[in-house]
Amino acid sequence: MNPQISGEMVDLTADVSLSAVQSSLHTEVRALLKEMNSRCTSQKGWIRWSLERKVEVDPSCSVSLISVLVKELEKKLKKVLNIHKKGSHVHVIPILHTLYYAVIQSGSLIPRSLYQRVDECLMKLLILPIPYSTVALSTLSNVKMEMTTPGSLYLRRFIAEQNLKSKHCTLQERVFVLADPDVFTAQLEATVRAHLEVSGVLRDTPTAMEKKLMLRVMQKGLGTACRRSRLAQALEALDDQIVEKHFEEVVRAVEQSVKHGPGGCTMYLNRLQHIQEEILTAATEEVTEEDCDSVRSRTLSFPKIKFLLWTNEEDLWSLLANFSLRSNSNSSVDGEEKDRRDGSVRNPSSAISRRNAYRRATSKLILMREKMDTFAGSRRVQRDDCRCLTARVVVMGDDRVLGRLSRVFLSIRQRESKHLVLTKKLNLQLYYVPVTDVEPSSPVGLCPDEGRLSLAGLLGRLDPWYNSNINSLRATISNLSRTNLFLLDTLCYYLRCGTQPVNLPMYSVKMTRCSSDASSSVEDVFVSHLEADMPEFRYLKDKFPKDPSTRRKTSTVIVHGAVITVTYTETSLSKRGVVRGEALRTCGVVITSEPAAVTSGEDFLTASFDSIDLGNKKKIRTQNISIGTTGDRTLSVCLDRDARRTYTDVQRIDISPCLDPGCSLRSSRYLNNVLSLPINTFSGVTL
């Protein structure tokens, strides 16, 4: 047979095969986007997972997947420019995150022409409103870095998640999963723990991980010039010290190339080629070109995950403190705080006082900058302030666990505003996986607005991709039976791609209580819900259906309550606060948070009173409200639907936005000084 004809037939076969792969991937991507519009979420997330696994089994197909995703982005971009409707670009977010995942997990060199198409498409997406443009910019930044330094995204992510030691890349991460014991039964705890902590069992030794990482970077950087089989065998033949030496050389080459930008690409590739030759030369055993299974390095390994029942709120501080001080084993957070306090007592001179004042001011500036980064959705890979440690805290439960998290978050900010210990070393990221012990009354998988999953429903409405991948885990977690990696893979996907926070406003509650000696007060915070009622009239609320229209038809009994005084600042569209005072006869009050992300305006509270006049059921919209009882009446107050956070014998409640302890400098008048709970999602807000 003519060699030229034979070559043409091979090329034709390759093209047909490639076309078939792209056709299959295109079908899956279309199904993935269509899935977002489905109301039933019981199977949501599985298509994304199957795509992810396909790239893992055959890393070479990532190039075809990227090509398919770019075509979809180009179609969406044309539609967006023609229609100019918000709903028309809701699918941009999942495409961008899938694109990022395909780029980072690609096991082969991505053609520069394809990179150019990705770059041009992402540049055009920057005209979209926030958060679409924010995610597009983040993806563009990552793609540009990978384009000039192939393998850099994988290397940095791998080193951080696996806690590998390198003097050239000091990024380190730790994942903590805190589960609410009121939601997790013993059986559910054991099951989820087994599914998540398998990540530790699957971990290799540090030396084995270094070999894997070097091989992966060489493959992505050198492409066909990488002698994969020989290199893998040579790495296996080297002793640990030689492996360590070459590992540091590879990391140094990557970091220097990233620092130099496009100008350092040629030097980077030459350096990788030189390191490859050194490794092959250093191998004492004979290596061949024979392929073997050990050569095919797996995609990103799982990070080590610490799972625990969150029985003590101080556990989170201890976890963060221990992690932040790993690099300095001779000190402790408590020791640092004690030394600072003792030092100020031993030497109360004016010089020391000024020094302490300066340190406190510096601490506030750092806290304020962190707050601005959070509100801007800024997630830099390596911060200018050298905070190379990242703690990823995942809470599992319902509204109650987020209520507890808000209280601990405030406590951490209070500690840091006095003595900056964690913030200067640690980047704290918060995640939420909704889990409930109550069967939903709505269709399977939906997060109802009522009940203990109101915040899960809110996050799902704000970010449909969060709803598809994280809210849908409710059904998966409650039915975990067989051992597979779906839960672990989905959690890792959330941790890696959930970079845009939704800021849930926090509210301070000051409760004045009645005791036998004298009045006392206690302060707390809530993030979603406050309910206050009078115990002696609690039974009256159960006499009537929840639906007010049904009440009017069936009610023949007059509900007697007690008179309370209400003072509040009424909010309006003009944002002019009007202070009002009223006396109401009521059985109780329910106060719910309405975040600005939902209202498209500003944060406010809705206070609903159970009134004796069913035709005049009182509702108040406010940010500041005070409620007081008259006579000997007292209130029972429950925060965030959590019976563990119930306060009795309360005579007065004062509610206002929770102020951030880290924003008390004069210059903070230019910054929103209200403290919010930043929960990471995939897009932030897409209303």
Using the alpha-carbon principal axes, give the shape: elongated
Number of strands: 15
Radius of gyration: 29 Å
Strand composition percent: 15-25%
What does this structure look like?
With about 675 residues, the chain is α+β, with helices and mostly antiparallel strands. The protein has helices at about 5-35, 45-55, 60-85, 90-105, 110-125, 130-150, 150-160, 185-200, 205-220, 230-235, 240-260, 265-280, 315-325, 335-345, 350-375, 400-420, 455-460, 465-470, 475-480, 485-495, 540, 550-555, 595-600; strands at about 170-180, 305-310, 390-395, 425-435, 500-505, 505-515, 520-525, 530-535, 560-570, 580-595, 605-610, 620-630, 635-640, 640-655, 675-680. Strands 6, 7, 8, 9, 10, 11, 12, 13 and 14 form a 9-stranded antiparallel β-sheet that branches. It has a 4-stranded parallel β-sheet with strand order 2-1-3-4, with helices on both faces. The longest helix is centred in the N-terminal third of the chain and has 33 residues, at about 5-35. It is elongated and about 90 Å long. The termini are far apart.
TL;DR?
The protein has helices spanning 3-35, 46-57, 62-83, 92-105, 112-125, 132-148, 152-162, 186-201, 206-222, 228-237, 240-260, 265-282, 314-324, 333-346, 350-375, 399-418, 454-462, 464-471, 473-478, 486-497, 538-541, 548-554, 596-599; strands at 172-179, 305-309, 389-397, 426-434, 500-505, 507-513, 520-526, 529-533, 562-570, 578-594, 604-611, 619-629, 635-639, 642-657, 676-681.
